[in-house]
Every structure is written in C-alpha cells, then in structure tokens.
Amino acid sequence: MIDNPRILLIYTGGTIGMVKDYNTGALKAFNFDKLLKNIPELRLLDCDITTASFDTPIDSSNMNPDYWTQLCEIIEKGYNDFQGFVVLHGSDTMSYTGSALSFMLENLGKPVIFTGSQLPIGDLRTDAKENLITAVQLAALSKRGKPLIQEVCLYFEYKLYRANRTTKVSAEHFEAFDSPNYPPLVTSGVHLAINEEALLRPGRRPFKVHKNLIRDILVLKMHPGIPERMVCAMLEIPNVRGVLLETYGSGNTTTKPWFIESIKKTIKKGIPVINITQCISGSVQMGNYETSVALKKAGVIGGRDMTTEAALAKMMYLLGQQLGPKVFKSVFETSLRGELS
C-alpha cells in the first residue's frame, strides 16, 4: 500500500484565513486546526494535510524579509517530511514573497505553492475554497515517484503560475494575478491541463536555503518631468546598495545629461543599477533606441523580461552573496529559477 502524500499547509495571514461571525458581521481569523471540519472537501483528496501557522498571522501589507526567512525555516524544517507545501498568503504582496522564496530555496525538489483569495473563506461567494483545494491537489501530484512540480508557484483562479513570473493585476476581480511573459504551468478545468514543458527541472544538487537578503534597494520609477533634485537626492541616500530603474517601453529613459551623469556616478560607487520595464509585458532591450544606448554605455544591467517583484527579490538575494560587479552582472542576467526568458 502506497502512503498518501503528506502536504504541509502554512498560514501566514490574509483574506483567505478569515471567516464571518454571523452574529456580529465581523471577520475573524480562521482556526486552521479545524481545517477539515470547516472544509470537508479536503477529505476527498488523496493526501494527508498537516497545518502550521505564523504565531501571529499578518496582513500581507506588513510582509518583509524577516517573515520570508521565517517561512523558509518552516519549509526547511519540514522538507524531508512532506512532499509539498501550500502557503496561504494575502494577495497584495504574494508575488513579492513567491519571487523571494524562489531565490531563497535553491535546488528545490518539491512544490511550494502560494494561494489566497479575494473573498474570505467564510463568504458565500468566496474563491478561497477552490483556490485552496486545487493548490493542495497540485502540491500532491507526482510522477514516477517524485513530485511533479519542483518549484515555487502561485495558484489563483484556475491557473498555476511560476511565482517569480507573476504580478497582481486586479484588486477587484477573482483573476487577480497574471504571468505576462510566461505561460501557465497548469490550467484547472474539468481536468488539470499540465504544461510539463514549462515546468522547471532543477538539478540534483542538495537543497539549500539562503537567508542573507540585502534590503537597501531603491526602486526608482521614471515619469515625464521627474525633477533632477529628487532623482539626485534619492540616489545619494546613504547605504543604498542597489537601484531598480523602472523605465519606459523596452528600457528607455530621458537622455538629459544630468540624469545619465547621476546614473554613472551611482554605478562608479559600486552600486548596481538594473533596468526593468514599467510595461506589464515585454522585455528591456537596451540599445534598441537612442534613449537607452546611454544607459547601456554607463553600465546599467538589463533586467530583460523580469517583473519588478522578481528583479527586487533577485537583487536582494545576489547582493547577499557578496559578488564582485562583473560576476553580479553576469549572474543577474542569467536565469537562475526560470525568472527570465
């Protein structure tokens, strides 16, 4: 007799973990120790579910690298005991956390699937039950005795995505997330349509957890008429370790001399500057237009088709590796966890 796969369900906080008190109408935290009682459909899945939770569940707006480390430690502790992990998380920063964990969990050989909901689990029209049930089902999938999914993913409204390819696109609709530059890994319908060619296949090296993340990163979004004094003041903030430059289109910015000089000055101080596009889809291609040639000559690193969330997480991770400038540039421009094409 084959044992059912064991899944660890980790609750960090968020809308999915709320139920309505019908006496008061107020939302209150869901008791995950009584998970099967409240969601009996989970009993129909051929897996054994164990639950864990942050001591104090948080709104995802308060998520930060300390909580990412805490989450990694829960997964690290249970890595050999469970086939897969499902993380319940608020949707607002889910793509940031999913992207971060994709880099923090190196040589991951098991699924870590993030999910949540737009409505509380106790709401009559909730999307929480379907998201949770299918996320657990996906985490339990196996092929030839090994987990089918071996990466950090995000499941929401019938689609499983690579987490570091996602961004939240709606605060209103159930289709809250999109993966504009990479196809869904699984589409849930009457059957699960699995895109096996799109799945990440890690090597056979030992699983390793990275916990040293550098937070001192400036995200600078370009806009028409951005004042020189503001840009220069932000780039001169003490202890800035990296800059994410959100540019127009395929990587274009103003060509005003003061702007290019301020970027050059930043790079000369040993601070890497990454060029990522403000567009929802597409890729940075520095040198295609005159307005990005100067950035390329100055030593700005092209983020290609990475999302802001993935680029931020990757920079935090790589800065923590204490790499030299040339190695940093080379590694940043290389796909480590399927985060860029």
Your description of this structure?
The chain has 341 residues and is α/β, with parallel strands linked by helices. The chain folds into 2 domains: 204 residues, Rossmann fold (3-Layer(aba) Sandwich), CATH 3.40.50.1170; 116 residues, Rossmann fold. It is built from 9 helices and 20 strands. Strands 4-1-5-7-10-11-14-15 form an 8-stranded mixed sheet, sandwiched between helices. The protein has a 4-stranded parallel sheet with strand order 17-18-19-20, with helices on both faces. Strands 2-3 form a two-stranded antiparallel ribbon. Helix 2 crosses helix 3. It is globular. 40% of the residues are buried. The mean pLDDT is 92.
Major sheet details: 8 strands, mixed
CATH superfamily of the largest domain: L-asparaginase, N-terminal domain
Total DSSP E strands: 20
CATH class categorisation of the largest domain: Alpha Beta
**Cα shape:** globular
CATH architecture of the largest domain: 3-Layer(aba) Sandwich
Spell the H/E element sequence. EEEHEHEHEEHEEEEEEEEEEHEHEHEHH
CATH topology (fold) name of the largest domain: Rossmann fold
Radius of gyration: 21 Å
Q: Order of strands in the sheet with the most strands? A: 4-1-5-7-10-11-14-15
Overall pLDDT confidence: 92
